[in-house]
Write a sequence for this structure.
């Protein structure tokens, strides 16, 4: 894929992009992000991974430490399909939203379905590279599965299809509005102003963190009761 388009939203003014690479320590990444983070100006932190299992472990450590120090929404952009056990750890560590790079095949569909069940509705996205043609059927099927299609830049004909399907799929838009829309031309109003304001975003982050803690505790309790 053209490197100009991955990671997506590199020019998004209300985000901070965090690269996790082999030559960077957890302490270095955390320190740099904390130093430059501005809650009022930045709507989300976008995380990108380069590498295998070792880098995924580093990413989890970074997110856990940043969650303790920052009030922020964390979005993970995955170029390679993660296995379900890693997705479980991503969610438990504090990842608020997942964006998968679109691929053809049953493995992608399986991974997407698992992500949609794990995260709240409206928190999972599929990124379609602008250099490929996306037909209406693919966009509609993506939304029927509970994920929001994204492009950077977003073509007008695709934007129309997405907006039309929002009425039938009823995917919640509160989360993506917190992120500034990620290129989708969503209507603005008083609710948008509340959701995109620092105060509204802080309340949303607190609720998201509480939901995660309750869900992780529920899973842990189920393992304990089963004697695992």
């Amino acid at each position: 894929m053209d490197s100009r388009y991955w990671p997506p939203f590199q020019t998004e003014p209300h985000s901070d992009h965090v690269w996790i690479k082999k030559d960077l320590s957890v302490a270095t990444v955390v320190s740099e992000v904390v130093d430059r983070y501005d809650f009022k100006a930045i709507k989300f932190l976008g995380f990108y991974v380069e590498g295998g299992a070792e880098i995924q472990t580093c990413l989890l450590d970074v997110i856990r430490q940043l969650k303790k120090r920052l009030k922020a929404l964390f979005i993970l952009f995955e170029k390679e399909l993660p296995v379900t056990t890693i997705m479980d750890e991503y969610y438990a560590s504090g990842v608020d939203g997942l964006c998968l790079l679109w691929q053809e095949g049953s493995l992608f569909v399986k991974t997407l379905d698992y992500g949609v069940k794990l995260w709240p509705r409206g928190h999972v996205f599929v990124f379609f590279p602008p250099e490929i043609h996306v037909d209406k059927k693919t966009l509609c099927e993506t939304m029927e599965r509970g994920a929001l299609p994204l492009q950077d830049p977003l073509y007008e004909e695709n934007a129309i299809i997405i907006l039309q399907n929002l009425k039938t799929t009823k995917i919640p838009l509160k989360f993506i509005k917190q992120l500034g829309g990620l290129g989708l031309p969503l209507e603005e109003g008083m609710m948008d102003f509340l959701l995109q304001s620092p105060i509204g975003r802080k309340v949303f982050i607190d609720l998201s963190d509480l939901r995660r803690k309750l869900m992780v505790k529920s899973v842990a309790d189920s393992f304990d009761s089963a004697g695992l």
Observations:
- The two ends are 43 Å apart (CA to CA).
